[in-house]
Amino acid sequence: MEKRLDSSMHDRLSVMLDALTSHPPPDSWSTVLQSERPSRQQIKRALDKLLNAIGRLDSQTLSSQPAIKARLNVHHELVMASLMRIGGSTDAALIGYQHALDAADRYHLTDYCITAASALRQMAVAHNEVREYRQYCSLIERLRSTQIAEIEAGSIEDEAHLSLYNYHRNPEKVDAQLRAMIARLEDLASEHGSVPVMRSYYRVSLWHASIIADSRLMLDLIESFEAWIALHPEISIPADRIEIQSVRMSAYFLNANYTAARRSWARAQDVLRPGTQNWAALLQLYFLVCTQSHRFDDARDLIHEYDQYQTRKLPPWRRQELEVYRAYIHLLIDHNVIEPGPFIEHHGTYIARLEKNSADLVRDKPIMNTALLVLRVFQLLKNRKRGELIELTESLRTYATRYLRNRHTQRTGRFLRLLTSLPACEFNRDLVLKRMQELKHKYPLADAKSRDDGEIIPFDTLEHILLTKLLK
């Protein structure tokens, strides 16, 4: 049976909770409890804030994050030292601040090191200890220099993250920018070597290796990153392990080592929280691992798993991309490539709703907009709207020439050119098959890659579906 609080205790706790969320904080709890009780609205706001924050935490989450525990421990040391100093226990406060400084240094918390060192410097002044004062001045100066480097490294990391979204629009420019950022981070790391600087260096380096699709560099960086983390277990955070598994899975994916990629997905489950952005990003990558290895049933089940969680907090572009993936699953179900499974009542319209709600994807010409165009062709074939299909294929020819002509998009360009040939081949399967062979001879480099970025479902599977839809 739930234990209830008596009215007076409830009142006291409500007042204290409001004081906890107030600014500035109270001078003492005695004055808080003697003050007038806050309004119900104030109490409700305070409760909502506190419960919302606590609701996101549990013992497993906290215990899996040594960095959070380290920061909480140092913060506790600083608060206790401050209380002892205010209460007049100078010797105890001195020991407390020294413990806090040692712990902050051990956990690489530069901001807390500065706080503890500043308090110790003030106490040295109060006791006229000139030598200690100068030592702490020198220490604080070095710490502030490190803190400036950490702030710069964080800014570089943020800028690098933003630049990733422009890579497909201007790959040469973004590549040069990221290389310059990595060089600057290397300089900062060699000069300071603090944990936040090193972490930013590894993250930006991994992002760069991923977008240039250098799988060997990706795996080498992961090995180095893991070795560095092993030297600093006290600052390990789940984000590092998620980053490592994500990049490792991407590297195996690029090498078409789908078995190893599946192992990376399995390892990542220990640190992923379903419904989060990291979870959705890795689920999206694993979906492609499944489709490219022709494990279409697993890909279908991933979309069903995605549906089980509240995903409204995900970025709109990611939700839109996953809806495109869902549409391809519906296409496979419609053509009896896989059983419906949980999508027994799926709708057969792949594209109409997507085009209305996917403005961001339409702007991504080489990848997601191309995936939408392929879906539209199959939708028109399904609905036997050959007039509209002929009009579309005329524009697709220009589209392929304009957006799908580099080495990153040759496979997609070749498949789109096959679709544009449907009217000329009179929708005849034998003529389309002949055209398919001609295109493979004309664009042999397209087979040098295992897939293109816009290849949601392997093109050989889509070619098979296309041929089954056409008459002899």
List keywords for this structure.
472 residues; mainly alpha; 23 helices
Task: Break the fold down into its secondary structure elements and pairings.
Layout: H1 7-20, H2 29-34, H3 40-55, H4 59-63, H5 66-86, H6 90-106, H7 110-126, H8 130-163, H9 171-191, H10 195-211, H11 215-231, H12 238-254, H13 258-268, H14 277-292, H15 296-307, H16 316-334, H17 352-356, H18 359-363, H19 365-382, H20 386-403, H21 410-420, H22 429-442, H23 459-469
Helix content: over 70%
Report the uncertain regions. 1-6
Oligomer: single chain
Largest sheet, if any? none
What percentage of the residues does DSSP assign to strands (E)?
Answer: under 5%
The outline comes out as elongated
Radius of gyration: 29 Å
Order of helices and strands: HHHHHHHHHHHHHHHHHHHHHHH
Tell me the number of strands.
0
Number of helices: 23
Distance between the termini: 74 Å
Class from secondary-structure proportions: mainly alpha
